[in-house]
Design brief:
With about 425 residues, the chain is mainly alpha-helical. The protein is built from 17 helices and no strands.
Length: about 425
């Protein structure tokens, strides 16, 4: 009991609560307007919007080169001036990657349209957005590492308000359907991406100095993580591609709506992780052996309490989700109910995964991590195809949960192998 009271007073919890509140507001706004949009967007329209978000996620993975991770692991190890040089060279690499992805999109435009039902003009916008979103993510990562959750949250919320405000204007007033919703996302992303680039300069985090060694270090860290990040996309996006091609955009819209309720769990997971990562890296960077042992003991307690709390909250969120769908959504979306439980369980396992994967990042063991996660993703590619073919759209949910569980278990095992935490050790 005394350990629990000490944990409640811990600075990590206070910081996490601020992140949770800000992230809750950030994700609550688009979630809360979803019932309203359900009266103006058909499930088919929402299916196309969901597919565009998947395409944007893929473009961002290929463009961003995991520079947030590079910044995170070096933030406490190098000077601000040196970090500014890292960020400048990262932006140069991101620009080159954007051109390469645009070229690849042009070559594969027919394949992209057949898979996502997205016109090529929006494929171009998705790459431009990926660059802008990466600028914003770098800016947010720095605020998180500086332990400034209020600035982090206000900036996120402001972007979401612009995103939703423009979308509602275009969808409801101008009745542009899915195009209006997507255009709202584009406009907000570009505005805040440009603003983030200006902020990076003004905050002294851009040092214009070309450095081949820094670029090679960024690529050495980031390139192996592209398969890792793509594996996460494959696990969340491949089922929607199968559903779109086998059962149409309407089925994808219902599936995506059901999985949107997983946001209720994911925002809590990500908010805690935003606070936990800087604390974790700082704790593990301790050079005094006795203090390090105490830090590891504290980290184990946080992990145990976190996993138990997340499980309890997931059950409550499932009950709340069914209530919201029944009483606030257009009846054309009632078919989304069968996917909600699976969405929340999948997010629960993703939350468990995050408790362990950051130790692997800290030890810079990104190559084996990429192999693990990409192998799980390939498993889902085949398993999801089989499940969707045999069981219908719900098969995608089955495969997502199974692979999420396997990914969590394997990563947790590998995490303890690269950084011994003695998870079963008595913490009294």
């Amino acid at each position: 009991m005394s350990s629990f009271k000490k944990l409640l007073k811990h600075p990590l919890l206070k910081s996490s609560l601020i992140y949770t509140l800000c992230d809750a507001l950030n994700k609550a706004v688009p979630f809360l307007v979803l019932p309203l949009l359900s009266y103006y967007l058909t499930p088919g329209d929402y299916g196309i919007v969901a597919n565009f978000n998947i395409l944007l996620a893929v473009a961002t993975i290929c463009v961003a080169l995991s520079v947030e991770g590079v910044i995170g692991v070096n933030f406490y190890r190098i000077s601000k001036e040196e970090l500014g040089k890292y960020i400048y060279n990262a932006i140069v690499l991101i620009s080159i990657a954007s051109v390469l992805v645009l070229t690849l999109g042009l070559v594969c435009q027919d394949l992209i349209y057949n898979s996502f039902k997205i016109p090529y003009s929006y494929v171009i916008w998705s790459v431009v957005m990926a660059f802008a979103a990466t600028m914003t993510n770098i800016n947010l990562a720095l605020w998180r590492l500086e332990e400034k959750p209020l600035k982090f949250g206000i900036y996120q919320i402001s972007q979401t308000v612009v995103n939703i405000g423009v979308s509602l204007l275009l969808v409801i007033i101008y009745q542009l359907g899915w195009i209006g919703r997507v255009d709202g996302i584009i406009i907000a992303t570009l505005i805040f991406g440009c603003f983030s680039l200006v902020l990076l300069w003004k905050r002294g985090y851009l040092k214009v100095q070309n450095d081949k060694g820094v670029r090679l270090a960024i690529l050495a860290f980031g390139l192996p993580l592209i398969p890792h990040a793509l594996s996460i996309w494959l696990r969340s996006g491949i089922d929607r591609i199968y559903i779109t091609n086998m059962y149409g955009e309407e089925a994808t819209g219902l599936y995506a709506t059901g999985f949107q309720f997983g946001v209720l769990v994911s925002f809590l997971i990500l908010a805690f992780n935003n606070a936990f990562v800087p604390y974790l890296y700082k704790s593990l960077s301790e050079t005094d052996e006795s203090i390090l042992l105490q830090n590891k003991k504290r980290l184990r307690k946080i992990t145990y309490f976190g996993m138990i709390g997340l499980t309890v909250v997931s059950v409550l969120f499932y009950i709340l989700s069914i209530f919201i769908l029944d009483y606030f959504f257009n009846q054309t979306y009632s078919g989304a109910a069968e996917f909600i439980l699976w969405a929340i369980v999948a997010q629960l396992f993703q939350g468990f995964y995050l408790f362990f994967v950051n130790y692997i990042f800290f030890m810079k063991k990104t190559k084996p991590l990429a192999m693990i996660t990409f192998s799980c993703a390939l498993l889902q590619v085949f398993f999801s195809y089989f499940s969707v073919s045999k069981f219908g759209p719900i098969g995608g949910a089955y495969s997502t949960v199974v692979v999420s569980f396997l990914n969590f278990v394997i990563v947790a095992w590998f995490s303890n192998k690269v950084y011994k935490m003695n998870w079963l050790k008595n913490n009294n």
